[in-house]
Amino acid sequence: MKKITIITMALAILLSACAPAAQGETVTLRIAVLPIIDTLPMFVAQQEGLFAKHGVNVEFVPVASAPERDQILAAGQADGTINETLAVMLFNKESIQMQAVRYALRPTANNGHFFIIASGKSGITDVKGLKGVEIGVSQGTVIEYVTERILQAEGFSADEIQTIAVPRIPDRMALLGSGELQAGVLPDPLGALAVGQGGVIVADDSKYPEYGFSIISFRKAVIDANPDAVRAFLAAIEEATELVNADPAKYKNVLSEQNIVPPLLLETYQAPPFPA
């Protein structure tokens, strides 16, 4: 009986999280966020009061890795996130659970999104040196996907591409710096920090922009229950994107406060253009 009661309570909590708001009630959307540059417009929207302006509350749920992000979403502890189409596809393997609603960030010819970096202690100086070398990635995520696609485009055969699971970005950074990891994949701006510590960028997705974009997605149940709140969220993001693209230097405080850009890079770092 006790077990049935616990299950019933858990279901009630999940259902209440997806229930439509009462008329006149402001909806709160919980967004799982990694410390990545893709999140900058979200934090700017919060700082500038744009979510409130459009009539939606937003709470950020910090996560340390993509697997942790996906676990939180699967448990209904977050409503939306920045991820990638691969993650959405995996959620939707058996039934539609997640839905993409907007681009978050896309690489351009002059601004890479993901960087394959060789440790300064590895002796690797170009992409050919990665053949048969274990490359640190977060498996089952866009990072692993981009790594394989870039190397395939560079002429690697399947057996020449070797990856190893290092899910947390700080761990990948540390192992690259110490030389315990010969190569790893890092997002902007941590790629620049790794280079400053002796790493060598041997490939990136600026040459292959079709692979490395990120998206904003929401749980389908949340979209169905509160579509106006999701529209309001997106309207705020659109305004914030315009502000960031017009004057990225204005929001260096956000980059610092949210630990998106390391202190060593803060003065010289230039945020990439964000897609409308």
Short description:
With 276 residues, the protein is an alpha/beta fold.
Descriptive keywords:
276 residues; alpha/beta; 5-stranded mixed β-sheet; 38% helix; 19% strand; globular; disordered N terminus
What is the strand and helix layout of this fold?
Layout: H1 2-18, E1 28-33, H2 40-47, H3 50-53, E2 57-62, H4 66-74, E3 80-83, H5 85-91, E4 98-105, E5 114-118, E6 134-137, H6 142-153, E7 162-165, H7 169-178, E8 183-187, H8 190-196, E9 200-204, E10 214-219, H9 220-225, H10 227-246, H11 252-257
Parallel strand pairs: 1-2, 1-3, 6-7, 6-8
Antiparallel strand pairs: 3-10, 4-10, 5-8, 5-9
Helix pairs in contact: 2-10
Structure classification: alpha/beta
Roughly how much helix do the residues carry, as a percent range? 25-40%
Distance between the termini: 53 Å
* Unreliable residue stretches: 1-16
* Gyration radius from CA atoms, angstroms: 20 Å
Described by strand count, sense and barrel closure, the largest sheet is: 5 strands, mixed
Q: Count of helical segments? A: 11
Overall geometric form: globular
Give me the side-by-side strand order of the main sheet: 2-1-3-10-4
- Overall pLDDT metric: 89
Beta-sheet strand percentage? 15-25%
Order of helices and strands: HEHHEHEHEEEHEHEHEEHHH
Structure summary, number of beta strands = 10
